[in-house]
């Protein structure tokens, strides 16, 4: 191996990535659209569950709160493959939820990513709201607010901090491959997303193409994060002063 | 301009003029094995404003917090002049450092009015009226936390008044304000007193106590050592602790 | 207000085009590009969408036993016959074949190219210090590889490395370590990362690689779309499918040879 060739996969990867984007490759666009659809929906559902759940854990004073927090924090580190496997056993035709025929559908992938992302959103929300609650607790008490009202107030007041929670969840969902591979099946034009495409191209030995797709994934992740953070900062200037 | 009367549930009967808003008997509160309130008995919330004075650590803030229900006493009783009704809170508390939500000034008031049971349709109008009362109408859309210290405290005060309380507890509300902001705040307090709200005011500012209060309760080491009309207190304080405090001596 | 929208979006996934069948498949047929070449012909002819889950023969057989598919297309004849005997499949039919090849570094440190049989070649690998990358994943290729060692495969973790991964991942590892490995010819020819590696031993009858198709039994799995599944099996073993397989080439090389008997 000569040294000149050592960088060759990387230059080829850039060229591949550029070519796919420049030509608006139809397959790539389809795969990207599905990636956005699945991850977007999963993060949306995760936020709808995780925000209230986290806020209740953040402000609530009830038996089992600490245990729930420990559990949620542990679930954050759940390996995607385990989630995929567990869901496969549930959604499989032979499994308890088999009658719904969800295995190998985008819906199954949304469910898998929701399971992965919800603990992240909930745990970060609990952290944010608990911190704010320390500041607001006395005020809430003098106003005679119930726990649900308190949670709702904290969610709205913590909305900018909570975008970070949603972004962290998006990152995990967008980059995750183990779970969607198992429950989605990586079926061409049906359940093939960016990460499973990368895995497939790697298994075909098309390393430069896989790396090129990885570059596109990275750039898109960066763009999403930069966009959301920009919006967040703009909103924060308007609301917090 | 005339203040529209804040929303008040019809069931709330006013406190009889000759009765105190709250009767405290042998109140005891221990924090980390220290008796911070050591057997206080007093009728508080008499018409007008009562200044609660005393050195740091005398238990003034904890007394107010206990009356507001934020602390659980180890002993004694607190009896209000009204039957316990969960739907209407008749005691309001303003903290030394205002706690404002991360929203606009107007949204802070609307949020509070919602908690106080004001119907949705009336909230914005009432909130605007409260803002005008605080001379903050121009800042309705300003984030509350971007207001100046004096403006923040005025906002917190009218938020408490939005509750239409019978008893208003003020914990050193102007401790960190400059004279001008203090004067603006005192105008609001004076108006509330004029409107019939009974006020308990913790302050170290003798001038403020003279200007606002008609009665002074002096606390030292968790006990009441003096309870007199305010003019008498500043002229001829009876207890040695109060005299030492007024002289600026170190109290042990 | 949001809830019905989300519910609708969730259900949209499940409610997509109903005329499709799911094929549990080995990876080589997908990685080699065969499906991309022949499935559009079937889909155009019948209007049936074919969804391929390419996971390796062992996994495909297990998924099929869980009823997660309508058709099996794999390459492990004994296991396939057991699948049918156990009542999970209707019938098993030959579809096509290719062959396994032993690949390794071009300089061939174990000197396998000169051996007379695959068994001798593998013994030579074991006798040398050269590493051997095995799938170790219970796939069709793995089962065959294990059966080719005259005295069974060497102990794992010495120079015999079980990757526990698919063919592609295993070939990537073999290329990185300059290790020997057994793969099917179609996968190898379409594999891009060949990096100093080449076919060193081929042609032994023991390397014959038969692919079969099985329609999953509706008795075992009521969810099976029997009619469409049978149509696919009939098509791929029929004239159109067989000639489509025969005409799939990579450059000059035909990757699979159709051999359905009807």
What does this structure look like?
The complex is a heterotrimer of chains A (241), B (252) and C (262). Helices cover 80% and strands 0% of the residues of chain A. By secondary structure, chain A is mostly helical. Chain A has one domain: MetI-like fold (Orthogonal Bundle). In chain A, helix 5 runs parallel beside helix 9 (178-184). By secondary structure, chain B is of the alpha/beta class. Chain B folds into two domains: 22-81 and 166-247, Rossmann fold (3-Layer(aba) Sandwich); 96-157, no CATH class. Chain B has helices at residues 60-67, 105-115, 120-133, 149-161, 179-194, 206-212, 230-235, 240-247; strands spanning 22-31, 34-44, 49-53, 75-80, 91-94, 167-171, 198-202, 215-220, 223-229. In chain B, a hairpin with a 2-residue loop joins strand 8 and strand 9 (223-229). In chain B, helix 4 (149-161) runs parallel beside helix 5 (179-194). The termini of chain B are far apart. The model of chain B is unreliable at 1-5 (pLDDT under 50). By secondary structure, chain C is of the alpha/beta class. Chain C folds into two domains: 20-97 and 210-258, Periplasmic binding protein-like II (D-Maltodextrin-Binding Protein, domain 2, 3-Layer(aba) Sandwich); 99-207, Periplasmic binding protein-like II (D-Maltodextrin-Binding Protein, domain 2). In chain C, strands 1, 2, 3, 4, 5, 6, 7, 8, 9 and 12 form a ten-stranded mixed sheet that branches. In chain C, strands 10-11 form a two-stranded antiparallel ribbon. In chain C, strand 10 (249-250) and strand 11 form a beta hairpin. At the A-C interface, helix 3, helix 6 and helix 10 of A face helix 1, strand 2 and helix 8 of C.
Strand residues, percent of chain B = 15-25%
User: How many structural domains can be distinguished in the coordinates of chain A?
Assistant: 1
Largest sheet of chain B: 6 strands, mixed
CATH superfamily assignment of chain A?
Answer: MetI-like
State the shape of chain B. Answer: globular
The helix content of chain B is 25-40%
Tally of DSSP helical segments of chain A: 11
Number of strands of chain A: 0
Count, helices of chain B: 8
Helix content of chain A: over 70%
Backbone CA Rg of chain B = 18 Å
The arrangement of helices and strands of chain A along the chain is HHHHHHHHHHH
CATH architecture of chain A: Orthogonal Bundle
The gross shape of chain A turns out to be globular
**Can you tell me the residue ranges of chain A where pLDDT is under 50 for at least 5 consecutive residues?**
none
Q: What would the average pLDDT of chain A be, to the nearest integer?
A: 90
Radius of gyration of chain A: 21 Å
Q: Using a beta-carbon cutoff below 8 angstroms, give the protein chain pair with the largest interface and the number of residues from each chain.
A: A-C, 31 and 38 residues
Order of helices and strands of chain B: EEEHEEHHHEHEHEEHH
What is the structural class of chain B? Answer: alpha/beta
Give the structural class of chain A.
Answer: mainly alpha
